[in-house]
Amino acid sequence: MMMPDRAAALAAARALPDLPIDTDGPVFREPWEAHAFAMAVTLHARGLFTWPEWAAALADEISRAQTAGDADCGDTYYRHWLATLERLVAEKGVASAEALTRYRDAWDHAADRTPHGKPIELRPEDFAG
Questions:
Q1: pTM (predicted TM-score)
Q2: Position with higher pLDDT, 32 vs 42
């Protein structure tokens, strides 16, 4: 997946004040966090949601997680980001929650059989369960 351009990333950082950033822009602990960020920036650019809508949905997701026991130490921020992305995609009718679960499970299967450092490739058998 192509990362968003620097201007789009900085615009997102300005619109979302709780986004982990440094002087170069958003900060990610793992590659999947950058991919989740890029997907949200791309979907925003395509008009799926506004940044205020995103910020409200993300705040709601974080609040629900805290109520359920998330200690909010900063290491779960992008897990909330991903959950928010999945929720908005389902609510907007882009993909159903079932389809998202099916693909997440397929990625888990594909990752389990992929040697560390190699690209993960989905195969039809990954969807078999």
A1: 0.72
A2: 42
